[in-house]
Every structure is written in C-alpha cells, then in structure tokens.
Write a structure and sequence with these properties.
Helices cover 4% and strands 40% of the residues. By secondary structure, it is mainly beta. Strands 11-12-13-14-27-23-22-17-20 form a 9-stranded antiparallel sheet. Strands 1-2-3-4-5 form a 5-stranded antiparallel sheet, with no helix packed on it. The chain has a 5-stranded antiparallel sheet with strand order 19-18-21-24-25, with no helix packed on it. The structure holds beta-D-glucopyranose.
Length: 341
C-alpha cells in the first residue's frame, strides 16, 4: 500500500503556493514538489534496514528557485542540447535561447524545471499538469503536458504525456542526481554500474553528438558488464561520463541500467520506453552549492541516468524522431526500481 499525503512546501517570490507530495510504501519514501515536478527527497533502506535520502537537493524552495544544475527536476520542452539552439520544422526556422556554450540546453532559460505545475492526487501517486504556450522559450505550438509519479512497492514510475497544437520537438526527462551511499557522500567511486547498450554517441567539443553512432565494443563506454565507476572514470580522457547510450526498440521496458553500491547493498534498476539514456557523472559539480543538511556536492558526488531521446535529434535525421505533431500523443515512461542485495 502506498500512502499519499501533501502539505505546503513554500511560496514563490510571486506569492504562489508550492505543494509537496509524499508517496510512501514499505520500501521507499519519495517527496515531489509542484515547482518543476522536482523530487526533493527519496529515501530507501540499506541492507540493514536503515533509510537514507539518496538524491541531491536543497533544504528549501529558495535553493530550487535559484540557479542550480537541475537537481531532481523534470526537464523540457527538450531535455539535453540542441546545436546552436536552432532547428527547422515544417520549413520554418526556430531560434532558442543559447544557455550552454554555443548551444541551447534543457528547455531554455525558464524550462519545465522552473515553472509551477498544477497537481492532482491519483491512486498511489500524483499527477502534475502544465500548459506551455505557443512560442514559450522559442518552441512552436501550445503543449499540454502531464507528468505522473506513482509508487508501487519498491518501484517508482514516472509517466510523461503531451499533446501539441503545432509540430514541435519534445523530449522530457527527470534529472535526479543519485548517490546510493546517501546524498552528501563525497563521491560515487565505489558504485558499480552496467548499462545494456551496444552503441553510444560520441560528442564534439561543445558536447553535441557528432552524428556517429559508435559501437561500445572495445571502448571505455562498454558498460554491458558491471564496472567499478571510480576506475572506469579514471580511464576516460573526458572528466567523466556525460554521454547518450542508445537503447534498442527490443529493450523497451527491460532492465537497461543497474547500479549497485556494495557497502550499503542498495541497488537501482531502470526500465524505460525511451530510446536513450544520458549517463552523467556530475562532472560539473564543484562543491559550491549548499545542499541538504549542509552537504556540499563536489565533482562526481552523484550520477544521473536521464532516460530520454538522443541529444540534438531535431537536427539529426538519422536519430530517432522527436517531433510531435498535432493530433498525436507523446507518451513515455521510466521505472526506477530500488532494492538491496
Ligand atoms: C548534461 C550535462 C549538464 C547537466 C546539468 C546533463 O543532462 O548532459 O552536460 O552539465 O545536465 O545541466
């Protein structure tokens, strides 16, 4: 049985109330706020039955309203990078805000992570809805979007549905930063990970995929068998992982990634309907943010598994399509399964 309760989390500078929803099962407690659909707390038990909060974040709303690297938030209208913030749809050119080097990232200056959603309690969870206006952050068409979090036993499901009035790119994900040792632990080097992907996307110096779809075989991106994260990161030329791993259609809803933290026994398994996973090892965290309970978050103190479409897909016809047309429904789900070993 999952209990769903709610309270007031805080007020935005404009005075609007932000609500917090607490979903609790025997194994997992998760808290989500109506600002940015942000997961602010996620507690699971270790092998001795002790609970810890395993996601990075802040103690109060102010932290989430201020600039931060998308802790726990829902990202859209298009998660990840769009080269030079430009694309063409139905013969019309669009230019988005440039907010990451020469590129546009994570929906622009005020993406889905920075807006207030309308919440509604549902069985075992909460549904948030939002209407993104035609032209908002440069994107075409009015987009109605629903994000539903449900917790059943040890599995948290996140479903994204959307409809548009005009053809638009859509790519929505959740950007939780996990540390299975408990948030505030200094690194993730003692975590073991496997990602069941035969291909990954190499990127250029601005982090845009080159367009090649490379086999992982024989590279440091071969994570098909569990590897220790500390030693694997040490082998990379890059400062850590920040790459899209390609899922196959046949893998839909199968377990596609698994993270094991031996000292605590915590295991996180992922299933998804999405075609890719951006595996990011928090390379840009630098310890300057004041996190929950006074925690600091240095480089590599968390990992993200952002299930999503492939970066810059709107400009790369060889990548799976991310255009949503009027009359179609966008419908994607990711399941986070927590257990101990
Ligand atoms: C990107 C990183 C970025 C992080 C925070 C991830 O999705 O791949 O490069 O630093 O989000 O913006």
């Amino acid at each position: 049985m999952t209990s769903v309760t709610s309270d007031v989390y805080g007020s935005l500078p404009g005075g609007q109330t932000v609500k917090r929803f607490r979903l609790q099962s025997e194994f997992v407690k998760v808290e989500i706020i109506s600002f940015g659909c942000i997961i602010t707390c996620l507690e699971t038990k270790d092998r001795h039955g002790n609970s810890s909060d395993i996601v990075l974040g802040f103690d109060d709303l102010e932290g989430y309203v201020d600039k931060h690297p998308y802790f726990g938030a829902v990202i859209g209208r298009v998660a990840n990078r769009i080269a030079k913030g430009s694309f063409t749809v139905d013969g019309k050119d669009y230019l988005l805000p440039i907010n990451n080097g020469p590129n546009s990232i994570h929906g622009g200056l005020k993406g889905f992570d920075k807006v207030l959603w309308t919440p509604e309690e549902v069985e075992n969870g909460v549904q948030f809805s939002y209407t993104s206006g035609d032209g908002e952050e440069g994107y075409p068409g009015e987009l109605n979007i629903w994000v539903t979090y449900t917790l059943v036993g040890n599995e948290l499901a996140v479903n994204y549905k959307a409809k548009t009035s005009k053809t638009t790119p859509v790519n929505v994900t959740n950007h939780s930063y996990f540390n299975l040792a408990g948030q505030g632990s200094k690194d993730i080097y003692d975590h073991e990970i496997s990602i069941d992907a035969e291909h990954y996307l190499p990127v250029d110096e601005t982090m845009i995929p080159t367009g090649d779809i490379n086999p992982v075989e024989g590279t440091n991106f071969d994570l098909r068998k569990p590897i220790n994260l500390g030693s694997q990161i040490a082998k990379l030329q890059e400062s850590g992982f920040d790459h899209n791993f390609c899922m196959k259609e046949s893998q839909k809803q199968q377990i596609c990634a698994r993270v094991f933290h031996k000292p605590s026994g915590r295991v996180l398994c992922l299933r998804t309907t999405q075609p890719g996973i951006q595996f990011y090892t928090a390379n840009f965290l630098d310890g300057s943010l004041k996190g929950k309970g006074g925690a600091v978050y240095p480089k590599h103190s968390a990992f993200c598994l952002e299930t999503q479409a492939w970066p810059d897909a709107v400009n790369k016809p060889q990548f799976p399509n991310i255009l949503l047309h009027c009359g179609e429904e966008y419908n994607q789900t990711t399941w986070f399964q927590f257990s101990v070993e």
